[in-house]
Specification:
The protein is mostly helical and about 200 residues long. The protein has a single domain, classed as Four Helix Bundle (Hemerythrin (Met), subunit A) (Up-down Bundle). It is about 70% helix and about 0% strand. The protein is built from 10 helices and no strands. It starts with a helix and ends in a 14-residue tail after the last helix.
Length: about 200
């Protein structure tokens, strides 16, 4: 698989994830522990402040793009097929997740708004896993690692697991404060990442 178009897909796909994934993780690491403080500032001011932090993160990733994208391995058809299968699974999970996860929740508005704290999601796929969004991202990252086959992608796929685990632990602390006893009950009933049953994929 040496087609030039596929080499371009591999390169730019890896570059986009190299530039965006660290910033996304840093965003939530900043938001969740300081949610009370950000609510006092409100969503607009918060996004502007956090953007000033994320811009240097993105700039550092841009400066190191040459090192990150230097090591690549030959594209392998078997890897691409396996990677596409993982990505397809991630898409199915994402579609089921987005039936309940609205855009304003996806970008963190409930964490930042005292007037609109959102609701605890427990229905649908959220009754099988507390974090379907992070689950599908982790699966997709391993899929991309197989498809693009860059060393940087392999490392990002591996490191996204502890990174998202950290984010979920911070998020759980914030949700405990926001929803109290109902969330505690939800914690005891539904796994953090891996569902006890994958039957929801067929529904």
């Amino acid at each position: 698989m040496d087609a030039s178009w596929f080499e371009a897909v591999r390169y730019y796909g890896t570059l986009v994830l190299w530039l965006s994934l660290p910033a996304a993780v840093v965003f939530w690491v900043i938001i969740h522990p300081l949610a009370d403080f950000w609510r006092r500032l409100g969503p607009t001011v918060t996004y502007l402040v956090v953007l000033m932090v994320l811009l240097p993160v993105g700039y550092v990733c841009w400066l190191w793009r040459g090192v990150a994208l230097e090591a690549r391995y030959p594209a392998r058809l078997s890897f691409v097929v396996a990677g596409l299968a993982l990505y397809a699974l991630a898409v199915v999970i994402e579609v089921k997740c987005r039936k309940h996860l609205k855009l304003r929740t996806l970008v963190g508005v409930p964490e930042l708004s005292a007037e609109a704290p959102g609701k605890l999601l427990t229905e649908g796929i959220y009754g099988q896993t507390r974090n379907p969004r992070y689950l599908d991202l982790m699966i997709a990252m391993f899929g991309f690692a197989l498809i693009f086959n860059y060393r940087a992608m392999h490392w990002m796929a591996v490191l996204c697991v502890p990174a998202f685990y950290l984010v979920t632990r911070l998020e759980e602390r914030e949700l405990r404060q926001r929803f109290g006893a109902p969330y505690e009950a939800y914690l005891s009933q539904v796994p953090r990442f891996v569902p006890r049953s994958w039957s929801f994929l067929r529904s």
